[in-house]
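Changelog entry: the Cu2+-exporting ATPase record was regenerated in this release. Current contents:
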Amino acid sequence: MCIHCGTPVPSTAADSRFCCTGCAYVHALLQEEGLEKFYELRGEQTLVPVSTQALRDQDFEWLAQATREAEEKALADATVARLHLGVQGMSCLGCVWLMERVHQQQPGAGRITIHASRGDLEVEWNVGAFAPIEFAKRLQHFGYLLGPSTGIGKGKPAADDLVRRMGLCGAFAMNAMAFTLPTYLGMSRSFVFAEWFDLVAACSATLALLLGGSYFAGKSWRALQHGVLHIDTPIALGIGAAWLGAMIGWATGVDGLKYFDFVATFIFLMLVGRWLQQFAVERNSRRMLQGAVVADTVMVCHADGSTEAKAIRDIAVGDSIRLKPGELCPVRAQLSSPHVGISLEWINGESAATERTSGQLVPSGALVVSNRPVEVEVLESWEGSLLQRLVASDRPEHVFSPFVGALLKWYLAVVVLIGIAGGAAWLLMGSSVVTALQVMISVFVVSCPCALGVAAPFADDLANGLLQRLGVFVRTGFLWQRLVRVRSVLFDKTGTLTAENPTLENPEALDTLDPASRQALSQLVHASLHPISRSIFDALGSFNIASQQDASPAVEEVVGMGLLLQAEHGATYALGRPGWKDDGNYSGNSEDVVFSRDGKRLAAFAFEDRLRPSTRAAMDRLRQSGLTVQLLSGDRHEKVARIAAQLGLEESAWHAEMTPDQKAASVRQAGASQTLFIGDGANDSLAFDEALCAGSPVTGKNFLERKADFYFLGNSLRFLPDLLSVAHRRMLAVRCVFTFALVYNASAIALALAGVMSPLLAAVLMPASSVVTLGIAQLMLGQWGRKMKGQDRKTDPQTVRGANGEVALS
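Regenerated structure tokens:
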């Protein structure tokens, strides 16, 4: 495991202690500055691996604007300036401690409040005394990225609302139980305060119903309006029946119907279960900054040389727009600038940069990788562009499988029929209406689905915890129900099966450089967006090169050739095509770029598209389990063929040069209702929409990560078979819980039909059954999790049920 973040270390890693160069860099920085206490506070918790993107230059123009607005407001109100900011990369108490220490080191630092659960922070300072941008850059050195806050001022997260409901309903439940307990202990009805005790219990149950019960009733009603049976329907039915019976019993003086404590306690437990589900989903979503995929405005250039910001939806054919380095071209356009480098990886998955000259077309979604702004003439509106279509696409949310939906319908029908039949039977036997009503309501009360409301969310939380050890984070609550239906796994290539950037084949060439040359190389590639530059920057991350973060060298780009740097001591460094600025012999085969000083070759680098670590082993395990594996790529045929050969895929199992529509069609052909798709680019968006479930690596593009059912960190795909294994283990745990619940409900209903189900017995059985179901889930998943952690997977095979049955995954 990586000694910095705790995620698995790929077998191909240059340093067996770290999963990536980002973690190695931050670890060295912590050691250098005496901040090792971070690891003591982290404990055994898995952290977010440090993306090398967190160490590259970031555009803080938004933060500069936010700072100006905050200070202007502070001056007008004669108070301190204040900013709410989102944080990416914060995982544990150690992260909070480290961020506080970094803040204290900044000149003019005021108060800081860090909300780890919300993934944001608040800073205050006296105007002019503190520089938020410098603070953001300093945090970036340690792998934390700041962005606009998404929670404060824009509505509280759903989990926060549940916490408030849960806390108040917990208090109401304690009140109801406290004032009902004397009755269970034999308090006489003639006691002077007996009626007051009933009144307090009734008020507590009613308040719990209004505050907490309305949550389930509202969701159930909205689902029924759309003709869908929701999981909250039986919960709402049981809560409503218990409260109605209790009120009737209170009004008529029938103690056998007073379920006040049951109502309040049951609502509290159901809210706890629902909070478990939503908290995990929101927590994982907040691990990433939720910035816009495409900027809302673009800079339009006028004939007189002036510029103005214009909403992207308002740009028209003929407008001239200016694009900054790293900005996407939102629409199809014609290049006005003389020469520019662009990347089409978002559109066709091709990682190599291409060149465009004045008059040539720039497609919608092209990324500017040159280090200077470019101008293009708009050829289509935003509404008609490919990028708008991909950004606007969305995934449907089908929460339940057909089996679960049918089970809910039968469950409700059977419970209602048994309750009504039981009440009618007692009437026919000559009992009073009150007795018959007591039997019917008791059936509704004791058959409430505690397993669905508490144990299943608890099993989800345990499963989420198992995946986090592998660097996988679940974003949607319905993922587990879908994963067990997967029979086909489809992959994008570039950035998914392979690394996001070409891999440096000869990193040992970096070791031959002297410190001055190494720093010059770092300065050359630091701000460059070219895939080759990003690869070299990633490889340099293993060196302690913190000084380059503070340097602002003047790097000249010669598009199509390379980069030039004039060093302070007069030397000229160049990184580019062989033979461009170097005097070495060019073989033409093993060199992609050459690094030179004053024309003298210092190092030559070769690159290739390389599979992520453990990819072949993960693919083999998936195929062995009976799953169908396919590769869908927009990249060139020869490059896809080479990767497919490395994976052992037959010719029919891979496809090249695919458009987004063709990828979506392939998902439908493979069986959308049983397909898992994993991709990372905008060209995968339509395929995401078709697939049963979808996952994405975290690339920093902030696009598919936001619509994926799960995302993963780190460089390895070894987690994928384990992801499916956890899903099936979770399903087994839930089935065991349901089996117990079925036996419990059958026994409890039998007691209710026999007329012996009292409120006291219901109040005892309900929490007791919930504890048992939680214990079953913990036993099934907790024990299996310890095996995952304590044993090597090669000697402790797990299982996954594929289309051909259950086989070992070694």
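The chain has a mean pLDDT of 80.
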